[in-house]
Amino acid sequence: xxxxxxxxxxxxxxxxxxxxxxxxxxxxxxxxxxxxxxxxxxxxxxxxxxxxxxxxxxxxxxxxxxxxxxxxxxxxxxxxxxxxxxxxxxxxxxxxxxxxxxxxxxxxxxxxxxxxxxxxxxxxxxxxxxxxxxxxxxxxxxxxxxxxxxxxxxxxxxxxxxxxxxxxxxxxxxxxxxxxxxxxxxxxxxxxxxxxxxxxxxxxxxxxxxxxxxxxxxxxxxxxxxxxxxxxxxxxxxxxxxxxxxxxxxxxxxxxxxxxxxxxxxxxxxxxxxxxxxxxxxxxxxxxxxxxxxxxxxxxxxxxxxxxxxxxxxxxxxxxxxxxxxxxxxxxxxxxxxxxxxxxxxxxxxxxxxxxxxxxxxxxxxxxxxxxxxxxxxxxxxxxxxxxxxxxxxxxxxxxxxxxxxxxxxxxxxxxxxxxxxxxxxxxxxxxxxxxxxxxxxxxxxxxxxxxxxxxxxxxxxxxxxxxxxxxxxxxxxxxxxxxxxxxxxxxxxxxxxxxxxxxxxxxxxxxxxxxxxxxxxxxxxxxxxxxxxxxxxxxxxxxxxxxxxxxxxxxxxxxxxxxxxxxxxxxxxxxxxxxxxxxxxxxxxxxxxxxxxxxxxxxxxxxxxxxxxxxxxxxxxxxxxxxxxxxxxxxxxxxxxxxxxxxxxxxxxxxxxxxxxxxxxxxxxxxxxxxxxxxxxxxxxxxxxxxxxxxxxxxxxxxxxxxxxxxxxxxxxxxxxxxxxxxxxxxxxxxxxxxxxxxxxxxxxxxxxxxxxxxxxxxxxxxx
Length: 769
Prior knowledge:
about 775 residues, Rossmann fold, 8-stranded parallel beta sheet, 26 helices, about 20% strand
């Protein structure tokens, strides 16, 4: 395709009564220096607007450069040779002699660095000048345009131009050109002129590579978020004047006020609305509520728009953007170097710690044949657990511990807490954090069970109030809800009552109200549980926040269990266990106590290369497969369900309930989870905290586990051994697996589940009657 031309009249600003802007579109193969020269000649004020369009995996596919009168759009798909030519041709545009402005300049700089190996200087991030809103929201765009603009903005035109996003396949060439033109005009206003630019050429190459990857990973994760969310709400609802009052029935899909736009459907009726307030499970929605009638059946409520970044995610993005602008020094922080920069060592902060460096290395190298120092704990610890506790308490700045299922990761954490020296500089604290509230709660219960009560656990109101209050009954006196935190240091000191062991989620550390806690009890040691589920970019914010007090980071997890969210779609995501120099230093907890011996031995052989031992009072086979030959998988959107398996599981649920046995039901698919929960309620069985998807059950266990595999024609999730490992390792007494015998021994025979079925022959199968 040869060069094409077009023209348009800008429409976002109401004063736009000017001549048309002329544009040209050039493919990489036809790109010539003359195209750049012509554009630069038209940029008499040395300012260009930039608008990117990202293709598959958020790789830069097209980019538009705009002066006041001309726009150049470059299609970047091409061969490596063409990209090499493009690098030389594009360089004059990217130098510091011309200011470039884009809404999200951090992503543009990262794209040039990663995709074309070019360095962009003089880059202005326009959304940085919209601090009152999330950078990913349309409100941020409107605020930027409205606050910086000396003229009125046509909000409808701006919304139509920018709402599709920078990765939408529906973005036309003219829309891309107009975005660049708008960015250029905003950059001419006074506020933009004083903005701090990104100059990639002045950033060390290794640092730029890390920062660019951090930006790209966030882009890829954002692309995975669905554009709409079907919110599960109770069938009953009420009307309050013009407003609708509804009650969310599931935490994961609850209505949230920060994503306000919704579509409400009842039968053939379809109306739009917006969320006014949310309190616990209850939400008030502004809409034409009089059009609805309770007698006409339940409602369907769908949130419009992608879920916005959390406070922690937004803070991470701000820190990385600041590093690109070189307004912060995160890349020089010790723990940043230790994680990202070739294993750069974190040196102990005192001479006494430095002297014990060799001794500490010896502690990290402890094996089952080397006994560490004596550790006081109310329960016996095995040798690998003692070695892990010793490593946590050592002055070595980073410690990595791999703990397979049932090996006592929370026991190790509890023992480290109880043996931690009382004398800490400036009252420094040990912070026990995890990705999920449930994992944090499990640590708190473990501490309480061994008699250690000098801690506080912080929980967000959103998670606790009306949703999960029942989970915290055992530790209620030690719980502090986020909305109950005092606003002054004296009040916080009284609430903490001298406790220097603090438990919370990783995201809670970024909460502005939580800053008072870390001022009263500075973060000295951070122990991260579920570290295999945490993408290393999530440590950017705490490393930045607590670099002056943090002296040790401990990562505990298992890379044979659940990976960071999105890793199956975004292969570049890493936990600390995928970082070679960190993985190499990991200690291994080598004995599991949860699963009966035969199951533990099977997992040890097939998942952990024979390194995992089992100690359990039950030594006979504990698993059974139930053949559900008539069960067929059925599609529900992008997921699946299987009605026959639900029928079979209800029979076993009745039996276990009659026998007063404790059990849980696990399935890999959310529609199946929902139908199983409804079936329990319909059968008058307890459905509270009874049915789980795999991803929400890691770290949990029960006496009996019922697994609904759902699939009967394609392997699906069973290709993901890490998720299957989690499913198979939750039982303490027994497990039943529901599927088709023909399927498990046929298409799925090479999976971990297929191997488990074959390990004991025909005796593991029972028919569904």
